[in-house]
Write a structure and sequence with these properties.
Length: 544
């Protein structure tokens, strides 16, 4: 790619990776330099302009969807704000016996505004992302009957990041409706909240109160923030380039041609994909947090060492945290708090008790959450299966909780003993890997076939011969991955104990700090997966 191509237009796919040469050597330094030299009052506008240039470079004319979403929530937010002001005035001036009618009148109007915004935002996402899936399945169903009618399968270009900024836009407008966020009359500030270039590709999915004012009031680049941010970016690069990209050939080879391999190779590929996905996605989040930290902005963390989880439920509190909390706040809680579900919970408590009673309504809400979660990731049956798989595991865990506690008492097992917690973490990890196998498979049928191979055709022989060479990796690659994983595990164990190695490092002498930093850079340069034989790997979550 030429510099002129980068500067003057077209779709620049390489920019979607924060660790590509195009981003690290051209766009990011230029954006940082420009941001650093302009006066403070101009910084938010420069940041907004850079964000829109970034989106234009990776999406071209599809940037219009981001613009329309921004305008929609801006004016709907102001509309809601005006209705809320009018309602308060009417309530203050009205008679006490008329207040219920006044409140109902204005509430109905506000719900109409919310319905308009939700239908337009979700409708656009559904039309672009899921219409082909819907039409294809309808045609498959119609083929079973003696009819010639077929739906035309549309082919839409999907704006990068639309699944992320749509949820972010929805959170803003719903928070304004709830009264937890004041409608913003500053359109550029709201636009920057949605379009901030590090988060537009893979998130995190931020709330207005978390980042909007911080981005708009971001100040000068301080040396401490610069070094801390660069450290975080380098740590993300270690995950992405040394581990995730190095495992990519093996994962692609096995999942693309799973019929040629037995259960052992499929098991290794599933494990490698789980590692790859975590290192790729969390590495990208390290870059996002690091870039924001350079300008003094704290982004919400999206991962909290998920593989230390003892249950599937805990795992999803630590993995893709901002997506999980979004579904909890805007799907799970509203459903369980609805009048019908409250009545169901009240009746269920009387017959099923305080533990199982609330699960009746909770299971309905949980089903909706995981149906939406699976569908959010992609328009395919394996994604829906992935969602239902975790729904069953989490609901089953809740149903079995009293039984497990009874067994612990009977067998005198202390749940805090190290061996018991280790077994719980191993069990959770295995369940996660199985779920990721279906998530990565080329369709639900392929996932089922691969899982069947795990159970019926498992041999250790491929693990001892030269099968690895045909999979695009060798023992050298596996040793590099293993050593780097141990390094990351070492850091994660300390973080899990509440000890920040970065804080310890910051207290050391400057020569030691820079020695560690340069050692990390050299390690990435020497052992990173790039150059001849390696193609740049797109960020895995950018496709969602």
């Amino acid at each position: 790619m030429t510099l002129s191509a980068l500067l003057y237009g077209g779709k620049v796919d390489q920019l979607t990776s924060f660790f590509s040469l195009e981003f690290l050597a051209i766009f990011f330094p230029a954006a940082l330099l420009l941001y650093g030299v302009v006066p403070k009052k101009c910084k938010p506008y420069v940041l907004l302009a850079e964000s829109y240039v970034f989106v234009w470079l990776i999406s071209g004319k599809l940037i219009v969807f981001l613009l329309l979403a921004t305008l929609l929530i801006h004016y709907c937010g102001l509309w809601l704000d005006r209705l809320q002001i009018n309602m308060r005035q009417a309530l203050a001036e009205g008679e006490s016996d008329a207040r219920k009618v006044i409140r109902a009148h204005f509430t109905a109007k506000q719900r109409g505004v919310i319905a308009l915004a939700v239908v337009l935002l979700i409708g656009t996402l559904l039309a672009l992302k899921y219409s082909a899936f819907f039409a294809g399945n309808v045609n498959t169903l119609l083929s079973l009957f003696p009819v010639t009618l077929r739906l035309q399968v549309p082919q839409h270009l999907l704006p990068i990041g639309i699944s992320f900024f749509t949820l972010q836009a929805l959170s803003y407008i719903l928070d304004v409706y709830r009264g937890t966020t004041k409608a913003d009359d500053n359109l550029p500030r709201l636009a920057l909240f949605l379009a901030f270039f590090p988060q537009i590709v893979e998130g995190p999915i931020c709330r207005y109160h978390q980042t909007a004012n911080a981005l708009w009031n971001a100040g000068s680049i301080r040396f401490e923030n610069l070094t801390q941010g660069l450290q975080r970016i380098l740590f993300g690069m270690l995950k992405k380039i040394v581990i995730a990209d190095r495992l990519d050939p093996l994962v692609k080879t096995v999942f693309s041609n799973h019929e040629a391999y037995d259960g052992a190779v499929i098991a290794v590929a599933a494990v490698c994909y789980t590692i790859q996905l975590y290192m790729d996605f969390s590495g990208a989040m390290d870059a996002v947090v690091g870039i924001a930290q350079i300008i003094g902005v704290s982004m919400p963390e999206n991962f909290s060492r998920p593989f230390f989880s003892k249950t599937i439920s805990e795992f999803w509190m630590r993995w893709h945290i901002t997506l999980g909390t979004w579904f909890k706040d805007y799907v799970f809680y509203p459903i369980t708090a609805s009048k019908g579900m409250k009545k169901l919970t009240k009746r269920s408590r009387k017959t099923l008790g305080n533990h199982y009673g609330p699960l009746a309504a909770g299971s309905v809400a949980l089903f909706c959450v995981w149906f939406c979660n699976g569908l959010w990731h992609g328009a395919a049956w394996n994604y829906l299966f992935f969602g239902m798989y975790h729904f069953v595991l989490i609901l089953g865990g809740s149903l079995l909780t009293p039984v497990v506690r009874w067994l612990q008492r009977v067998l005198r097992i202390d749940p805090e003993q190290w061996w018991y917690r280790t077994l719980q973490m191993l069990r959770t990890t295995v369940l996660v890997i199985i779920g990721e196998l279906f998530f990565r498979a080329h369709g639900l049928l392929a996932g089922l076939q691969m899982f069947e191979r795990l159970l019926t055709d498992f041999s250790l022989q491929p693990l001892t011969d030269e099968t690895w060479v045909d999979l695009g990796v060798d023992r050298y690659d596996l040793w590099i991955v293993a050593i780097t994983l141990l390094l990351i595990l070492f850091v994660s164990v300390y973080n899990e104990k509440g000890v920040s190695l970065r804080d310890h490092l910051s207290k050391k002498k400057r020569i030691f700090r820079w020695a560690v930093l340069y050692a990390l850079i050299v390690y990435i340069v020497v052992f990173g997966a790039y150059g001849f034989g390696y193609a740049p790997v797109d960020p895995l979550y950018a496709q969602f």
